[in-house]
Design goal:
The complex is a heterotrimer of chains A (281), B (376) and C (93).
Chain A (H helix, E strand, L loop, with lengths): L2 H4 L27 H15 L6 E5 L7 H4 L3 E4 L5 H11 L4 E7 H7 L1 H10 L4 E6 L2 E2 L5 E2 L23 H8 L3 E6 L3 H13 L4 E6 L3 H7 L5 H11 E3 L16 E8 L19
Parallel strand pairs in A: 1-2, 1-3, 3-4, 4-8, 7-8, 9-10
Antiparallel strand pairs in A: 5-6, 7-10
Chain B lengths: L2 H11 L2 E6 L6 H10 L6 E4 L3 H12 L4 E6 L1 H6 L1 H9 L4 E9 L5 E5 L4 H6 L8 E3 L4 H18 L2 E7 H5 L50 E3 L13 H16 L2 H4 L2 E4 L6 E6 L2 H14 L4 E6 L1 E3 L3 H10 L2 E6 L5 H9 L4 E6 L8 H14 L4
Parallel strand pairs in B: 1-2, 1-3, 3-4, 4-7, 6-7, 10-11, 10-13, 13-14
Antiparallel strand pairs in B: 4-5, 6-12, 9-11
Chain C lengths: L13 E9 L9 H5 L5 E3 L11 E3 L10 H5 L5 E10 L5
Antiparallel strand pairs in C: 1-4, 2-3
The chains are: A alpha/beta (281), B alpha/beta (376), C alpha+beta (93).
Amino acid sequence: MNTLESMTKQDGHPIEPLLRMDRIPHIWCPGCGIGTTLNAFVAAVNKLDVDRDKLCVVSGIGCTGRVAGYIKLDSFHVLHGRAIPFATGIKLSHPELNVVVFSGDGDLVSIGGNHFLHAARRNINLTVILVNNFIYAMTGGQVAPTTPVTAYTTTSPFGNFEPPSNIPQLAEAAGAVYVARWTALHIRRLTKSIVEAFRKPGFAVVEVVSPCSMYYSRLNRMGEGIDMMKFYHKNSVIKHGEPTENLDIKFQKQIIVGKFVDRERPAILGSSGGPDAEAEP
Amino acid sequence: MSGSEACAEGALSAGCGFLAAYPLVPALEILKRFAARFHDFGAVYIQMEDEIAALAAVLGAAWTGRKAMTVTSGPGFSLMMEHVGLGVMLETPCVIVDVQRWGPSEGIPNKPGQGDMMQARWGSHGDYEIIALAPNSPQEMFDLTVKAFNLSEEYRTPVMIMTDESVAHMKEKMTIPPTADIKLKRRKYYQGPKNKYLPFNWGKDFVPEMVDVGQGYKFHVTGLTHNQKGYPVINAETQELNVHSILNKIRLHSDRIAEFDEKDTQDADVVVVSYGITSRDAAKAVEKAKAQGKRVGTFRLITVWPFPEKRIAELAKTAKAFVVPEMNYGQIFYEIERCARGKADTHFVFHERSRDNGVARILEAIDRAFKESRAS
Amino acid sequence: MSLVRTPYDIKKIKVPRGEVHIVKERCKGCGFCIEYCPNGVLALSDEYNEKGYHPPKVVSPEKCLSCALCEVLCPDFAIWITLQGEVEAKIGG
């Protein structure tokens, strides 16, 4: 993103027009990557020049789920795991709306896993921003299906013994047409990815690997948010188009980021199907 | 037309623009009819991956301004409970049809039951009020579906239609009124300046004004306890304000909402209270009892929730006993017992229709009521 | 003797300059801005804000290039840059 384009004399942070300033400061911890991801999202919205009235955000429960409460758009804070079907109801009823699902790994891939798979299968035109902090942070740091093996959490005090999900692989297998992963540090590329995901017709997922200072990094003695960002700096490698089966994140090992899937797939026929709906390619 | 078909037609006549459901016996025929007819009405039909997703999609659709509905039976109804709570908290108009079957759990999918009546009222966690209707014929399936949509729009709340497999599957002659005669209600839309919209401006009648997504109001709503602006606020005062408002919204209007049909109850010694398909058999039993010279009245609940507490309490003063046949092991019976407050006896009848339509059992209970209470 | 050759078109290159704005009360002391400023414009200050965190302070304002990395990285929206025009490029500047 060329920041020079958006530089003008301002009285406040450029994000403020899209923020519910009456609720700032927000509840996220020092060093949390969600605020950074929100910055990238708003930068993407600014770049897209989309009608803000027709843009709505649906979030589930969790730290990332609180995004809906801070963004100044039509926003819904619904049940744990059910942001995607709620968004599906909105999108099918009013296809001209742009619906963004902004939620966390536990919300979208654990309790909401079924809905994630089916929305990808349907290839419904949603943009999903999935913030992955490898833990259930809001409820106090419990193990999540994305927690790497051997990591400590409050409910895996001897180390996590379950193999974790590989979100890009899940998304691709289920039928998503755009899958990318970035860390909260790759802020410019993340913004670009969100722009692409938004423009892509169909189910687009952008996974954002984000630091969780209070739980994931603290319980695993990885320092604070800044230390996790330094870790991402040193240990993330960009490999566009990498086969998603290679994208497992092992504990404290390399994180592969980039755009992995950008393809065409048949989508749900219009909003009501029926004998006159045109078939999509 | 069958009850199921009538329900689907009623929904479309009421302006239902969205149906999301998961197929479940015995609610399938409603889906089948809707799936064949919806695009003539510009509606949206989708089968979701499970009942949880179905009610989630319905709530989302309702916020775009469409009248939205889902259809299920007992097992799906249980799954939907968390979203019922969300629908109540977000104050979203929608209709949930439960075609009850024998439970619990899988039970018998193709036998009628009335075992979800209490669940309709208390199924979700926390305190809330709900509106639930009980049709007893295909005609009522049509009429009450229209009424359910009207109530949901008027009170900005989820409304349930508690029917059962026999009403859904029976075929009867019925009349679909001309479109001009079908009176429809629409939610109260906010008309003021966009930046001053409060999604939950609980006024004197506690029914807040609503808007559609995508109109520039930039509202936020949450299932967390919230203030009028829709922002989550974590303190006792907001909890009280929020919960009292959603309770009062129904309670203050329960006299208007509760609908029932009573016959010969004025000087009846025994009143038979029933709803749904049971009311037909109860009516037959009462006719037989009257032929024997007994003073018996019928009280048919059309609206089961909010329960017509006042009327039952009044009747308890004049009648000696209530006989309550239900296709369950006692659910609405306890409401009647509660409202009677000991002033009248209450007798429960396990109503089971596969043998002689259960009329004999109801008659037997009426006899018992006369013998055991101080009836003449 | 300098090992860096002066580019022939150096007069054509203009380097943007930025002014740093910090809302001290929003800062939660995460340190992202300080760490990732490419020119070392910021450093941790000794003062406390109301919540007890050390907000950043601008130590080299003339080095701010208006890249705005601090602005987009800050999770608390506490720091941003306004463009202050451009200056001529010079080696080592």
